[in-house]
Here is the input.
Amino acid sequence: MASVVPRKNKAGKITSYQVKWRDGGSKTGDWQTERFDDEPSATVFKEAVAEAGQNWPPGWEKGRGYIDPATADELRYRFDRWAVESVKNRTAGERYKKRRIRSMEMYLFPTFGNCDIRSTDHFSKATIGAWINKMMKTKVKRGPVVPERDRSRVVPRGPGAPAAPATKCPH
Here is the structure.
């Protein structure tokens, strides 16, 4: 049987409400949960779970709510969904897929995630060019930052480079 559980922060203040139930209502069913910001919404959802036989209500998408089937069909043309599906359908290994999806989440989705892949307004030479120029100005720093005055002491790494001198860790 579904129940509404208030979720509290460390200070004891109620921050959200969670509806919890066992899949199918059985003792051995997996726990299912959905979070709500207010108690009335959680109660309405709890009743919908009960009407669906202790299962997810038809048309409900976890974390998003009821999705209109016509709208759901349109969502497949959003760039973020299309790109993730494209990577998942590749015959590459799981590690490769996870890395590609993570890169898209960092660099592509903030700009193009909600774009319609069928739109020439969203994907034109001008919009892609503007994004590329923005990315080229973005500086991504990896590893320790070496001040300009100390760059002469930086030892090159890589194939054919001399071995790094043994140094004591400063910590």
Summary: The first strand starts at residue 3 and ends at 8. The first helix runs from residue 39 to 51. Helices lie at 39-51, 69-75, 79-88, 94-112, 125-137.
